[in-house]
Design brief:
By secondary structure, the protein is α+β, with helices and mostly antiparallel strands. About 30% of the residues lie in helices and about 25% in strands. Strands 1-2-3-4-5-8-9 form a 7-stranded mixed sheet. The protein has a 7-stranded mixed sheet with strand order 10-11-12-13-14-15-16. The structure holds zinc ion. Zinc ion binds next to helix 9.
Amino acid sequence: MVVARRPIRPSSYCNLQPAQRILEHRHRKRVSGPALVHKSLARLNRSWESTFLTACSRRLVVPSWEAYTMSDHADDRSQAGGTVDPKPAFKIGDFAGYIISDGQVPYSTDFVFSNAPAGVLQSGLAGRLDERGELQLPYHCLLVTTPSQNLLVDAGLGQAAAAAWGVPAAGRMLESLAGTGFSPADIDVVVISHGHPDHIGGLVDGGKLTFPGARHVIEAREWDCWTDEDQLARLPDGLTETARVVLPLLAQADVVDVGRGETEVVPGVHLVPAPGHTNGHSVVTVASEGQQAIFLADAVLDELHFTHPRWLSAVDMMPDETIATRIRLLDEAARDSSLVLAYHVAGIGQVEHHHDGYRLFTQQ
Ligand SMILES: [Zn+2]
């Protein structure tokens, strides 16, 4: 069903003001105009040498799940940006999860860590920055297969936006999907964690829906935010122009289902509101036979957000909620021994408490 747009509430329904303040602050420091995201990304034409592989080259062995071993496929990732891996990253009961890489994009460190103390950040990032001092963030969608349906969680930046941003190593989701042996026609449900361009751009390909036969599930507040021109007008164009193109096409095709509160997408797979990064940002849980995987989407943007859960990025729209949600999710993941994945984090594993934060750990 397509949800009718709600009238905007006078008190700023989407509560985007904190992000605006962060962006404006950064604007005064570094860039001109509101298009921080554009500025940050347009500078990028990188050799896609594998600094990010350094960070994700640890071997992951997760008990009870088939491990996804990034280091085994390092050569595939070094230049092209996309990942073609036909093996599932994990299996839980009748479910299998595949990492569908859309590639990678370099970001400035103060974009990813807008409030981190410089000295602590510098040591935390040691050995991970490229020759320009920037951090390669992977874009990892998740394909979940069930006995009856196939779900794709997030769709990457898409080729059009990747070209516009000048990031040729992104926009590779369809290549990676094909590498698993699946085609767009095989996808029954697309789950959208939130409306940022790096998650929704791939929903359109060549001006048409990439998955025209799929239901597209999104949290109601998120849909409302990114389809409301009054709200969009308050954000930088670099964040909004993809939503302005993609979401109306979904609405016109009548393929959108919105979830209110925690929503069962298919039996065993839930869309769970996790506000902070955006107002309707949601994570996805996959559970079967006493085991659970949780796809954190952008509740963390880097592994350092496990260690320092109070560090924010420049695009965490609701800072206090971002921190509270992150801590809640990581506490629950540690308690439940969940398998943890995140869209911009290369490794997968389990979470444990560590000093004042957490860490994503692996077992040899
Ligand atoms: Zn993202």
